[in-house]
Amino acid sequence: MCQTANYYEQIRICSLYSEKYSVGQISGGINQASSVLEMKNREPTICVLSSQSTWSQSAITLAGNSAGISGPDGSHLYIPIPFYYDQPNNLIIVGDNGNSRVIQFHLNNPSSNGTVIAGGNGYSCTSLNQFHNTVGVALDSSRHLYVSDSGCNRILMFPPNSNSSTFGVLIISLSIPEGIFINPLTDDLYVAVYSTSSVVMIAKNNTVSVVVAGANGGGNGLNQLYQPNSVYFDYLYTNSLYVTDTGNNRVLKFPSGSTSLTNGTIVAGGSSSGSGSNQLSNPRASLVDMNGIVYVSDGGNNRIQRWLPGASSGDTIVGGVTGTASNQLTFTESILFNENYQLLVVDRGNNRIQIFNITAY
Predict the structure, then answer these.
(1) C-alpha of 337 from chain center
(2) Per-residue pLDDT tens digits for 32-47
(3) Among 173, 182, 219, which residue's Cα sits nearest to residue 198?
(4) What is the pLDDT of residues 293-318, one digit of tens each?
(5) Most-buried pick from 208, 227, 318, 336 (CB within 10 A)?
(6) What domains are defined for the chain?
(7) Using CA atoms, how far apart are residues 81 and 26, in angstroms rounded to an integer?
(8) CA-to-CA distance for 140 and 198, rounded, in angstroms?
(9) Burial class (CB in 10 A: 0-12, 13-18, 19+), 146
């Protein structure tokens, strides 16, 4: 197993140094210079994911109750849906939907209680410090928090270091916005819109949305979506937009600069709903690695699927059986990899966030 000696934030590659090293500096990270370990007389081995990568089948609970018990206090979650990994500060930010709040947890001390950074003031749309359905969360490059609230038909922005008393600012009103993604290079905001079966983009410092996928009526054509749940823009490797097209049980890939006229390419699913290796059931989120491999949170099948480029079927990397045990998941939502390629999963039905350690690259 490759142990990370350094994580290059800009290109998300971890390097293994197995001989003597000295400490140096390298500039060029997205946010700041980072310490590196400089090899003497040897090139580093680059650790990247592959089609053969494997993860432990038993997870560790990072947030929430390991037995799946819900609750309103800082040690519990209730119907979590989205999350965001704040890598520089080693935090996870969770949209705790059932508690109408956004709460963050320090991964350096995962047993500690979370801190509410927005909401928690009741299930309502009356005030800008309240939520109805927290279905999307993200940070921009200035650490402003964006929250997609499908029940209030709006996206709110909160300042850095916000808390439960902080009022948000209305960024845009949309009819049933779902998952969101912010491109950290441009701060462009992408939103999956359930009601119009589309994905829109709102440029930085703008309040006008531009359609970048769908909006052609709900359907299964390649330029159509049907009730999409989440969106991911791969700014690092493929420069493409990936849409989890939930109602069609598939993931579509669109090129950068796409519009409502652009056809997508099916990169996962696309068959009828089911549990076969070539099927998805109520997919909730997706992401892509440096090899163009797509990972899908297959909510209805309680599993995370891996689809290779051009493949007509996927394979299960974790999950597949519903339950509360450490090797079980119940209706998965958002997924992500941290800098060590550990897989983090929102286990919605069990009111917890699970982490699966990588066992082979």
Answers:
(1) 9
(2) 333 333 333 434 445 6
(3) 219
(4) 999 999 999 999 999 999 999 999 99
(5) 318
(6) 6-47 (no CATH), 54-360 (2.120.10.30)
(7) 37
(8) 22
(9) buried
* 31-35: long-range pairs with CB below 8 Å, 24+: 31/88, 34/6, 34/7, 34/8, 34/9, 35/6
**345 token code pair:** 């999963």
As a whole number of angstroms, the distance between CA 61 and CA 309 comes to 31
Cβ-based neighbours of 182, under 8 Å, separated by 6 or more: 138, 139, 140, 146, 188, 189, 190
Q: What is the pTM of this model?
A: 0.88
Place of tokens 């680059």: 46
Q: Cα separation of 299 and 246, whole Å?
A: 10
CB atoms near residue 142 (< 10 Å): 8
Q: Fill in the amino acid letter for 226.
A: Y
Residues in the chain: 361
Q: If we measure between CA atoms, which residue out of 226, 233, 236 comes closest to residue 255?
A: 233
Torsions phi, psi of 300, nearest 5? -70, -20
Three-state DSSP class for 206?
Answer: coil
> Tokens at residue 155, please?
């996206």
